[in-house]
């Protein structure tokens, strides 16, 4: 069925949502680069969140992200090389190696959260607090119950 308003075809909604997401993420990473984190990329935020506060293995990380163990290992290698993750022996199982977030990685996450707060404030200044709050409420209504999923990289990749 065609959209009743030809000026607002249905395909534009996901594109506009993606454009808003992309704008926020691009602005975030520009600010992170200015604050000493030029190596961080959008995927890295998902990875750091998936590693969590207690660490994980590369296999578990791949499962959490919905990507292969090999892809997870390659991403971990890159984030270890730039100081956001570290590999350590698992104290509960000497055969396993854990991946953990370093202090530099935790700093990147903290700065990301602070920057997202500032970006939201900018949107509220431009659109009005009530409209931004209504947008957030509406998106919560329409999003699935488990809307915060770390497997977005795997979902995008198919």
Automatic annotation (TrEMBL):
Which residue range or ranges hold the HTH marR-type domain? Answer: 10-144
Q: Which GO BP annotation is one of this protein's?
A: response to stress
Query: InterPro entries from the xrefs?
Result: HTH_MarR-typ, MarR/SlyA-like, WH-like_DNA-bd_sf, WH_DNA-bd_sf
Under SUPFAM superfamilies, the record lists: Winged helix' DNA-binding domain
| TM segment ranges | none
Q: Which Pfam families does its entry note?
A: MarR_2
For this UniProt entry, the molecular function terms from Gene Ontology, in alphabetical order, are: DNA-binding transcription factor activity
Q: Which SMART domains match?
A: HTH_MARR
Tree of life domain: Bacteria
Instruction: Extract the PANTHER family matched here.
Output: MARR FAMILY REGULATORY PROTEIN, TRANSCRIPTIONAL REGULATOR, MARR FAMILY
Q: What is this protein called?
A: Winged helix-turn-helix transcriptional regulator
């Amino acid at each position: 069925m065609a959209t009743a308003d030809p000026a607002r075809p249905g395909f534009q909604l996901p594109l506009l949502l993606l454009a808003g997401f992309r704008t926020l993420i691009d602005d975030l990473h520009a600010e992170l680069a200015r604050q000493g984190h030029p190596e961080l990329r959008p995927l890295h935020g998902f990875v750091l969140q998936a590693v969590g506060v207690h660490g994980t293995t590369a296999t578990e990380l791949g499962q959490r992200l919905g990507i292969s163990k090999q892809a997870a290992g390659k991403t971990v290698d890159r984030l270890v090389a730039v100081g956001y993750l570290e590999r350590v022996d698992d104290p509960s199982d000497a055969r396993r190696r854990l991946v953990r977030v370093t202090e530099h990685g935790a700093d990147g996450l903290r700065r990301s959260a602070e920057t997202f707060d500032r970006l939201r404030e900018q949107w509220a200044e431009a659109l009005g607090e009530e409209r931004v709050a209504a947008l957030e409420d509406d998106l919560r209504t329409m999003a699935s119950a488990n809307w915060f999923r770390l497997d977005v990289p795997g979902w995008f990749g198919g």
